[in-house]
């Protein structure tokens, strides 16, 4: 490891931090998965950068705007701060390769399972991807983490149970929720 570079835990948003609600775009619908704020606070205290990387194809589909996503992130951040935690940065992919509005109908490098958001964050935050982790509830989260050179971890909150077999077949840790994933990250980081 390059000692001058930081370690990060990249987190998917919906189904990992907050309860999965199809195309969440209203702040009043934001609801944390139990224990998620405390898990993020543990990462903060341990010196990990905590970075959200989220696919938001609802923007491409015209269901809501990029500004709506930023509004959710501001509310999430404030609620986390109120509970002694914080997110260091939010990255979002508003694209979809086949559906939606022309400006966002793009086969991009930022949509997870591709690693674009993680690579961008690593460059902007001076992160050592080889000592960092990607936690999410979908195969696309795991694939993005692998492609970026991170250690992936599946949580079975959200859609995660659907991807348990994929994770196990690829020797990827499977955890019930973010709290358990953070404990596993700490064990692997010693």
TrEMBL record:
Site (Stabilizes the phosphoryl group): 54, 111-112
Record-linked NCBIfam families: GmhB_yaeD, HAD-SF-IIIA, Histidinol-ppas, PRK08942.1
Binding site for substrate: 12-14, 20-23, 54-57, 111-112, 138
Top-level taxon of origin: Bacteria
CC cofactor: Mg(2+); Zn(2+)
Sequence positions that bind Mg(2+): 12, 14, 137-138
Active site residues per record: 12, 14
EC number: 3.1.3.-
Residues binding Zn(2+), per UniProt: 93, 95, 108, 110
Enzyme's top EC category: hydrolase
The keyword Metal-binding appears for this protein: yes
Family matches, as InterPro entries: HAD-like_sf, HAD-SF_hydro_IIIA, HAD_sf, Heptose_bisP_phosphatase, Histidinol-phos
Annotated compartments: Cytoplasm
Keywords from the UniProt entry: Carbohydrate metabolism, Cytoplasm, Hydrolase, Magnesium, Metal-binding, Zinc
Protein family (similarity comment): Belongs to the gmhB family.
Organism, scientific name: Pelovirga terrestris
Protein name from the UniProt record: D,D-heptose 1,7-bisphosphate phosphatase
Gene Ontology cellular component terms for the protein in this record: cytoplasm
GO molecular function (one): metal ion binding
Single GO BP term: carbohydrate metabolic process
């Amino acid at each position: 490891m390059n000692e001058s570079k930081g370690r990060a835990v990249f987190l998917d948003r919906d189904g990992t931090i907050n309860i999965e609600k199809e195309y969440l775009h209203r702040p009043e619908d934001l609801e944390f998965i139990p224990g998620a704020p405390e898990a993020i606070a543990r990462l903060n205290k341990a010196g990990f950068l905590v970075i959200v990387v989220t696919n938001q194809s609802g923007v491409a589909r015209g269901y809501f705007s990029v500004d709506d996503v930023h509004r959710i992130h501001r509310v999430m951040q404030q609620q986390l701060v109120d509970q002694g935690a914080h997110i260091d940065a939010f990255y979002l992919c508003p694209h979809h390769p086949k559906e939606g509005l022309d400006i966002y109908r793009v086969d991009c490098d930022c949509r997870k399972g591709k690693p674009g958001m993680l690579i961008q964050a690593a460059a902007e935050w001076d992160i050592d991807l080889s000592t960092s982790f990607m936690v999410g509830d979908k195969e696309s989260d795991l694939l993005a983490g692998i492609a970026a050179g991170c250690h992936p971890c599946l949580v079975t909150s959200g859609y995660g149970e659907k991807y348990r077999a994929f994770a196990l077949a690829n020797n990827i840790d499977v955890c019930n929720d973010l709290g358990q994933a953070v404990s596993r990250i700490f064990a692997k980081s010693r």
